Amino acid sequence: MVQLLKVHGSQNSFFLLDQTQLNQTFTQLELVNLAKQLTNSHNLLNGADGLLVVSQSFQPSACAKMQVINADGSIASMCGNGLRTVGRYLAEKYQQQNLIVETAQANLRVSCQPDWAPHVKAVSVEISPVSFQQQDLPFSNLGKKELINQPVPEFAANLKFTAVAVPNPHLISIVSANLMQTDLLKQLGTQLNRPNPYFPDGVNVSFTQIINHQRLFVRTFERGVGFTNACGTGMSAASLVHALTYPQNSLFNNLITVTNPGGFVQTIVHQDNNHYWIELIGNATFTHYIEVAENELHQNVIDFTKFKVKSTVENQAYQEFIIKH
Ligand SMILES: N[C@@H](CCC[C@H](N)C(=O)O)C(=O)O
């Protein structure tokens, strides 16, 4: 039997598959097919935003490798909320509080934190590398090599935008509470995630509202998914943009709270020798343990009636915790 987990970070939900337990490793095509079927809301536990795949790492410092597959089958170089849950999974597997996990572009630090409440586990992860360079997003036809807090009339009148890779691509705008209520984020997210002249690989689009300089609200239309309850790399990128936009507020190295439709996280933006990186701290919740025979997962069309699902108490604990905060 194979064990899958259903997990979430700020209710950005995923299935988690540890490939090291399989007799027959999946091909990339099989993984994409599996991701599309598992995330479909009609199949199992209302679907999810993506699939997190854990595999063996051949990097000496890393205990495992994480791959992220979006609901539409596209591959992402990073996922902040996902890395927290993978980090917790690996911490429990290897009985270690501090780990390094290999991701598509970097080996990243993960560290278990004190529980936020009974059954609300918390994990801190490193978000890096950060780049504003056009080729790292990539973007084109904007007449610039970097887009940092600048107007882009092609995207929206009266807003400023920053494009930043952390290392997955994000487009961030700081907006008013009123603008947050409009359909603009959906329109822009949709436009930039189908063939478009500006972001050939698509982009995660986030609007950020400053509640005060210690508290932001961030909403994200994700590449390969659409609206999610939260996007960990999006909130990290938004925290960096916030710190850079208000240098007079000395926002580096300070813990700030970033709320989102699924709860909240905390971030700390760092600058070391001209390199930025962000610490992302938040819940790592396991909502279900799922068992299925390995051969069922290798089928082209998966029979979800063959899956045995056991729920945990963690989602209820998380919901109660969020209501109080
Ligand atoms: N939800 C994630 C980001 C997942 C990947 C993203 N959709 C992309 O394609 O870059 C997070 O928590 O960071």
TrEMBL record:
Xref: Gene3D superfamilies: Diaminopimelate Epimerase, Chain A, domain 1
Domain of life: Bacteria
Catalytic activity line of the entry: (2S,6S)-2,6-diaminopimelate = meso-2,6-diaminopimelate
Keyword field: Amino-acid biosynthesis, Cytoplasm, Isomerase, Lysine biosynthesis
Binding site for substrate: N12, N70, G80, N81, N168, N204, E222, R223, G232, T233
Keyword Isomerase: yes
Annotated site residue numbers, Could be important to modulate the pK values of the two catalytic cysteine residues: H170, E222
UniProt cross-references to HAMAP family, sorted A to Z: DAP_epimerase (MF_00197)
Oligomeric form and interacting partners: Homodimer.
Purpose of the protein: Catalyzes the stereoinversion of LL-2,6-diaminopimelate (L,L-DAP) to meso-diaminopimelate (meso-DAP), a precursor of L-lysine and an essential component of the bacterial peptidoglycan.
Family: Belongs to the diaminopimelate epimerase family.
Protein name (record): Diaminopimelate epimerase
Organism: Lactobacillus bombicola
Annotated gene: dapF
